[in-house]
Amino acid sequence: MSHQDRYAAQIAALPWKSLAHLFRQRVQESGPKPAARGKKNGVWTTLTWEQLGRRAKDLAHGLLSQGLKPGDRVAIFGPTRLEWALADLAVIIAGGVTVPIYASNTVDETVFILENSGARFAFVDGEWGERGAPGRLSRIVEAKARVPAVQALFVFDEETLGQHAARSMTSLEEEGRQYAPAHPGELDARIDAVKPLDPACFIYTSGTTGNPKGVVLAHASFIFECVALNELKLMQPHDSMLLFLPLAHVFGKGAAATWIGLGFEMSFCDNIDKLIEYLAESKPTVLPAVPRIFEKVYAAVIQKAVNTPGVKGRLARWALGEFDKWAQARMDGRVYESLALSLAKKLVFSKIAATLKERLGGRIALCVSGSAPLARKIAYFFEFNDLLILEAYGLTENCAGATANVPSKNKIGTVGKAFPGTELKLADDGEILLRGPHIMQGYWQNEAATKETITEDGWLKTGDIGELDADGYLRITDRKKDLIKTSGGKYIAPQVLENALKAATPLISQVMIHGDRRNFVTALVSINEEVGKALLAEKGVAFTTHQAMTEQPCVRQALEPVFAELNKTLPSYETIKNFGIVPADFTIEAGELTPSLKVKRKVVTQKYLAMLDAFYGEKLE
């Protein structure tokens, strides 16, 4: 019995049999309500569900006119935009399969995905690149030349077409409008023909070595997620969301499916560097994000408070000291109350809370954190300032969500309980195993990897290590493959130490713990540029570049007590014996971060191997 067959009854009971069916019903039920907002050339455009449905149908008819067959794959290459969502919806209702490509992917990576998926068509935003990289249109044109099966390219931004052999998305919509009258009922027939276990998309995992694997996710997987989230009531139809997460990542794609399922208003942010600006303009009530975003907001708010000159700055530093006592007590399972804490709340944190909420747009009621563990201190900071961050957990292979905290019962430090309909257990070594209707069908054209990941009785081996408390709440302790084993045979969970360091000081932007097969633990640290500048300005130290800033002795001196304080809480084998400051922050463009802003350990280790080797005085064999 396949794992899909095991859940045939649950799948048959789902209220919609496909995303295509769900979208058609959403348009019918919510027609005049605002559906989507996108910004282009500095101007916001809002579409109602009726307008979104009409444009998606025009594009779908355009794809049919091009010969798209049921099950054909269509790639989408670009950042998170309204046009991306439109293209995705058009592919889905035309009976096709979406193949997302990360906006930062190189030509070679794009070639592999196009070739491996067998994509017949591709959408691209235009001739845009990341910090010096060639434009995406140029990249995919070069990729198409190496993958003859790709028949046509459609470009979101018509003005960037130039001399490239591609067409605008606008022209495809127009072709669809001309095609539709001569083919009445064809699109509805396509929607009706989509089955629950038909693939909806292939999401390619962003591995650090080797080629990525194409995760095949069925329509039923996304519908199951929509139903489970509706039952958990994390969001409501009256909410509004700002989505900046890559739609090539399952967290973003899952959020988009939930948008269709619940019918709330979605604003799309195409540039993470402009997130604060987009938050201020779109004023969402819900923000799904990765921990890195909350770390940055936390660091910015703390930095602004403590660097305020005079009495206000001294008052802020005193108040933050009281918060530290309160947060430490919470982490220790104690209660901390004092007159000083009450005064700190009234005099300082009332203003910090207002600043924090304003920085997130002014109307935020709920943040959802996923993709990596969030430092407990940062979660407590948001809670202390009346902002709720709910941690959730899942993988691409289980279609995003598997567990989540809920507003009525949020256990900070955990990722909540299993979704309704999801089975969860721990293997003997602590690995988290998942089973349910949302588990992937497998890796595209990679049966060996599928068998390694899904057991014969349908359990997905997540590769994550966790613990369950008495109430069934899950705590992630680390990635199984990321566990460090020192030469002394001791196992260490690096993310725990990394989160503790980032929560301890806003001066740290990123940190990577190192020590696998070494005789002690060390760390690489990147510096938050704004905080570093403020520190050097206070010391009266001049510098010209980010690298020059990191080389100033006072920067290291500021970090040494942070490591010393953490080491006091650790067993001797886990203490961090040395650390180095890298000359530049880790970035996606440099290949050091995944698109979901997690550190690529192997890449960073290789890049700074000389620095790491120097800590140990020997080469790693």
Explain what this protein looks like in three dimensions.
The protein has 621 residues and is α/β, with parallel strands linked by helices. Among the domains are: 31-194 and 235-281, ANL, N-terminal domain (Rossmann fold, 3-Layer(aba) Sandwich); 483-616, ANL, C-terminal domain (GMP Synthetase, Chain A, domain 3), CATH 3.30.300.30. 42% of the residues lie in helices and 19% in strands. It has 23 helices and 26 strands. It has a 5-stranded parallel beta sheet with strand order 4-3-5-6-7, with helices on both faces. It has a 5-stranded mixed beta sheet with strand order 12-13-14-15-16. Strands 2-1-11-10 form a 4-stranded mixed beta sheet, with helices on both faces. β17 and β18 (431-435) form a beta hairpin. The protein starts with a helix and ends in a 5-residue tail after the last helix.
